[in-house]
Specification:
Blueprint (H helix, E strand, L loop, with lengths): L1 E2 L3 E3 L5 E3 L3 E2 L19 E2 L5 E3 L8 E6 L5 H9 L9 E3 L5 E3 L5 E3 L13 H4 E6 L13 H18 L6 E3 H4 L13 H6 L24 H13 L11 H14 L10 H12 L18
Parallel strand pairs: 5-9, 7-11, 7-12, 8-11
Antiparallel strand pairs: 1-4, 2-3, 6-10, 8-9
Amino acid sequence: MGIGLGTFVSAGTEIKRQRTLPSPWVHAGMQTFVPDSSVVSDVIPSANYGDRRNDRAPDMIVLHYTGMADAESALTRLCKPGTEVSAHYVVLEDGRIVQCVPEALRAWHAGTASWGSDTDINSCSIGVEIVNGGHDWGYPGFPQRQIAAVIALCRGIMLRRSIPRPRVLAHSDVAPHRKKDPGEKFPWRLLANSGVGHWVRPAPITPGKGLTPGGSGPEVLALQEKLAFYGYGVPRNGQYDAATMEVVTAFQRHFRPERVDGIADASTLATLNDLIASLPQAAPHLTPLPPHSMT
């Protein structure tokens, strides 16, 4: 079994010809399956999956970039036995979508991660890998056809699974100390305009120092509590330590990508306040903080 990756337009105008992807592992007694989504063009079963723990139904979507040289390398890694990594879906640069793991099963895409009270992200989420070289391979832009496919796929999943918009997240959101993907170039605004994900217009960047690494005190604690309220796994100790800087950096990649530096300047703080204020009343897995912490 193979998938012809065909001809597609990359982030620029260059036309690339990809070789047909060989999938020899599919023949080793593995069975294919009916795709969950009508927008799936191909099924390539992955050898790497398990059952969702505690019969957890997925109520989150985690978006990744593949971070590899090309689609063939990424699909090989996601499907071949022994790699211990997989995803439910892979979105190619030309907009075609491959399903590798049925949604009912637990794909191995998030690794060590958390969001709110959830610490087994693989059991509660559907993982979508977006073919893009990422920061280690020049970090190209995302083609429009690819983003349109991501939107169509996610809208269908959200509808079938009743997933609320704030539960469509970046890998860097749930694993801010390890991951950068899908990164600051990913067009979250376009997704939000189509009903996918939670987003507000970032506050303008203005001069000023803001809260910086090495600082401490009640303002830092208030920042940490707001980030934790939204869902981020951040310490709440009043110290602007390395872990807090990593979470602020992840927040900026998603919600204030114009400048990603880990410094909680006025723009970052205002954007975080606006994001919390715009949360739906019934946002899941969020415990309200005391009023003094939300000022």
